[in-house]
Amino acid sequence: MQGAGVIVALAAAQLLGGGAAQAQDWASRALCDVAPALHEDAFAPASLEALRAEAAEIPHATGRFWRVVAPSGAVSHLWGTMHSADPAILALPGLVEQRIADARLLALEIDPILPSRAAFDAQFDSADWYRASPAETVPAGVHPDVLEWIRLRTKGLGWGRGAPERLTPGALAELLLADPCNDFSAGVLPVQDGRIQMLGLIGGAEVLPLEPPERIRHHLDSPGNAAFAVHFLNVYGAYLDPETTPEEIATQRALYLSGEIGLMLAWDRAALSSRLGDDGATVDRVNRHLLDARNQAFIDVARPALAEGGVFLAVGAFHLPGKAGMIARLRAQGFSVTRIPLPGEAPT
Known about the structure:
This protein has helices spanning 9-15, 29-32, 48-55, 87-90, 94-102, 117-122, 144-156, 163-166, 169-176, 192-202, 215-221, 226-238, 246-257, 261-276, 281-308, 326-332; strands spanning 65-69, 75-81, 105-108, 206-209, 311-316, 336-339. The chain starts with 8 loop residues before the first helix and ends in a 9-residue tail after the last strand. The protein is α/β, with parallel strands linked by helices and 348 residues long. The protein contains 16 helices and six strands. Mean pLDDT is 91; it is low at 1-23.
C-alpha cells in the first residue's frame, strides 16, 4: 500500500548504476492496470465490517483535502497524496488543481529537483549505498518470505539477488519505497506528488521541501538504528507479496479516491500483520517514526510559511489521520483545520 515516504527510488537506482527498472513477473500490467473499485474479498483474512469499526476510532479518518487557517487568519491548504502514477490517481479534482495554481508556496515531503551541478554529479557516487565490506548474511530478523520478495525486487531492478548482502539497510530500504506498479510508466508519468510539483511550478510557486531526499536512508544507516532498519525492511518488503491481487490494487485506489484514509490505515496494519505473522507490532514501530515523528518534523518546517498563508501542503495521505496525525497536530498548535469534501468522497 506504500502509504508513507516519497523517494524516487527507481530514478536513484538508474542513476547509481542499477540498470533498467523492471517489475517482478508477478507485478504485471494485468495486476497494475485496474480501475478503482471496492472488492470486499480483497480485505481477507480481515473483514470490511471489522476494519470500518477500527477506522471509526481513528480521528480525522475521512478526507484528503483540508483548509488550514493560522492564528493570524492566513489561509493555506493541506492535501493527502497517494504515491502512485496511475492515471486515476493523477486526475486531481478541479478545486485541488485550482488551489495548487493559486499557491505561492508548495510544501512537499521532498524536492527531487537537484539544486546544482555538484548535486547532480554526487548522484553517481554510490559509495555510501554499499556496506564497507560485503556481509555473508542480511541483517538478522528479516522475515524469510520477505527476504525472498526483496531479492526478487532487487533482481528486477538490476541490482541482483545478492543486493541484501551488498547494500546498506538504508539503501536497500530506499529501493523498496517505490511501488512496482509505477515501473511501467517511470520516466513518462510522475507519481501524484510529482504532478502536484509540476503544476505548482508552472503556476509560479516556490517549493519548500519538508525534509532532505536522503533522510530516511541516512536514518536507517545511522548507528543505533539497526533494529529499526530491520522493522522497516520487513514492512516494505511485505508490500512485495507476490500473492497481491488486482482486486487489492483496485480497492486501494477506490478507498483513496473516496477519502477513506483511516480505513486504508486499518487495512494496511491488518494485511501487514497477517503477512509478517505478528500482532501489528512491526508496522506500529515503523509508523511511530515514519508517520508520527515525521509529522511533527514536517510541521516544524512548514509552520513559518503557514503563518503567512498561501501554502499548498502535500504529504502522503497516511500522514493526515490519527491522534499524532498532521490534522490533530496542527489543531493542537493553534491552527484551524477544516475538511473540504470532494466529489466522490465518503461522508465523515
